[in-house]
C-alpha cells in the first residue's frame, strides 16, 4: 500500500529548516578550521581524533550536570547509540579522510554528497513514502551544483579504494540522517549528541590516539583569515563551532524536519565551505563555483516548495485521495 505525506505545522517546519541550515553552515566551518590546523603540520586523522575527543569532553559534562536524565538510555537503545556513534560520527569522519588521502578533495565531497539521494531512496523504497517530483528535481539540481562547486574535473586521478571510501562515507552520512531522525524523536538531542560523540571519539582514537600527540603541536601557529593564532584555539573552535553545535542543531531539526529535506539541506555545506575558504584561506571562487552555488540554492528552494514534508507515513485513503 502506498504511503503519503503527513503535514508538518508551518512554524515547526520553518524552525527546523532554519536549525538544519545553521547546522550545515557550522559543519562547513570545520573545513577551513581543519585546513588551518593541517597546514600547521597536523595529519587529517590527528585533527579528527582531537576534534571528536574535545567535543565529547566538552559536551558530556555539561549535559551530565544540566540534563542528567538525557543520558539515561535503555538496553533497547544500544543499537541506536552504537549505530549513530559509529556511522553518523566516527564512520563519516574516518572514511572521508581515507578518501581524501587517495582522491581529490572535491571528488570526495561529491561522493559524500550522494547521501541525500540515498536517504530519499530509503524513504521511497523502504518506507514506501511518496516524494513529490520537486524533491527529486531539487536533489538532482543540488547534486549537480555541488559538482560545480567542488570542480571535480580539475584532478582526474581516481583510486578505486578512495572512491570506495567516499561512497562508504556517503552511506555513513545517510545513517547519520536516518538514525538521527529515529533517535531525535525519542530522546533528548543533547544526550544523544553527547553519547554519539563519545562513541565516535573512541572509534577514531583507535586509529589515531589523541594522547600520543606532542604538546608542542598544540602551541604551533595556525594562520586563519590573516591572523596567526595557536593551534589549540583553532581546535577548540573546531570542537565547539564545527562539531558540538552543528550536531546539536541537526538532531533538534530532525524532530520536525522530513529526513529527505534535511538531506538536501546538507548540500549547502560545500557551498558554505567554499565561501569560507575564500574568506579565511584566500581560496578564490571561480565562475563555475559561483554558478554551482546558485544551482545548489535553487535546488534547495525547489525542495522547500514541494509542500509539507513527511514525519510519519500514512496510507492513502480509498479512491486515492491523500490526507
What does this structure look like?
- There is one protein chain.
- 69% of the residues lie in helices and 4% in strands.
- It has helices at residues 10-39, 44-66, 78-100, 105-112, 115-126, 133-150, 160-184, 189-207, 215-218, 231-253, 259-265, 268-281, 287-304, and strands at residues 3-4, 221-224, 227-230, 314-315.
- The strands form 2 sheets. Strands 1-4 form a two-stranded antiparallel sheet. Strands 2-3 form a two-stranded antiparallel ribbon.
- A hairpin with a 2-residue loop joins strand 2 and strand 3.
- Helix 5 packs across helix 7 (160-184) and helix 8 crosses helix 10.
- It is globular.
- The model is unreliable at 1-6 and 308-323 (pLDDT under 50).
Write the layout of secondary structure elements.
Blueprint: E1 3-4, H1 10-39, H2 44-66, H3 78-100, H4 105-112, H5 115-126, H6 133-150, H7 160-184, H8 189-207, H9 215-218, E2 221-224, E3 227-230, H10 231-253, H11 259-265, H12 268-281, H13 287-304, E4 314-315
Antiparallel strand pairs: 1-4, 2-3
Helix pairs in contact: 1-10, 1-12, 2-3, 2-8, 2-10, 3-7, 3-8, 4-6, 4-7, 5-7, 5-11, 6-12, 6-13, 7-10, 8-10
Amino acid at each position: 500500500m502506498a504511503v503519503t505525506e503527513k503535514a508538518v505545522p508551518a512554524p515547526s517546519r520553518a524552525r527546523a529548516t532554519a536549525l538544519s541550515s545553521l547546522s550545515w553552515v557550522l559543519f562547513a566551518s570545520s573545513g577551513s578550521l581543519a585546513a588551518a590546523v593541517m597546514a600547521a603540520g597536523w595529519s587529517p586523522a590527528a585533527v579528527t581524533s582531537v576534534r571528536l575527543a574535545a567535543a565529547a569532553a566538552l559536551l558530556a559534562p555539561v549535559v551530565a550536570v544540566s540534563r542528567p536524565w538525557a543520558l539515561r538510555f535503555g538496553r533497547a537503545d544500544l543499537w541506536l547509540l552504537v549505530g549513530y556513534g559509529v556511522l553518523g560520527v566516527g564512520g563519516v569522519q574516518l572514511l572521508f579522510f581515507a578518501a581524501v588521502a587517495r582522491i581529490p578533495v572535491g571528488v570526495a565531497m561529491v561522493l559524500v554528497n550522494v547521501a541525500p539521494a540515498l536517504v530519499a531512496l530509503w524513504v521511497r523504497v523502504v518506507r514506501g513514502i511518496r516524494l513529490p517530483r520537486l524533491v527529486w528535481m531539487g536533489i538532482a539540481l543540488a547534486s549537480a551544483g555541488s559538482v560545480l562547486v567542488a570542480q571535480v574535473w580539475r584532478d582526474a586521478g581516481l583510486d578505486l579504494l578512495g572512491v570506495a571510501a567516499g561512497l562508504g562515507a556517503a552511506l555513513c552520512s545517510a545513517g547519520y540522517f536516518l538514525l538521527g531522525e529515529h533517535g531525535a524523536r525519542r530522546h533528548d538531542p543533547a544526550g544523544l549528541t553527547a553519547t554519539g560523540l563519545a562513541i565516535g571519539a573512541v572509534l577514531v582514537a583507535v586509529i589515531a590516539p589523541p594522547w600520543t600527540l606532542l604538546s608542542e603541536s598544540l602551541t604551533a601557529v595556525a594562520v586563519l583569515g590573516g591572523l596567526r593564532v595557536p593551534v589549540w584555539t583553532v581546535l577548540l573552535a573546531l570542537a565547539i563551532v564545527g562539531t558540538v553545535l552543528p550536531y546539536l542543531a541537526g538532531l533538534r531539526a530532525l524532530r520536525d524536519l522530513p529526513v529527505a529535506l534535511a538531506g538536501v539541506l546538507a548540500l549547502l555545506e560545500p557551498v558554505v565551505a567554499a565561501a569560507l575558504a575564500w574568506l579565511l584561506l584566500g581560496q578564490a571562487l571561480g565562475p563555475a563555483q559561483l554558478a554551482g552555488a546558485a544551482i545548489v540554492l535553487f535546488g534547495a528552494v525547489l525542495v522547500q516548495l514541494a509542500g509539507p514534508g513527511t514525519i510519519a507515513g500514512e496510507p492513502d485513503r480509498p479512491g486515492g485521495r491523500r490526507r
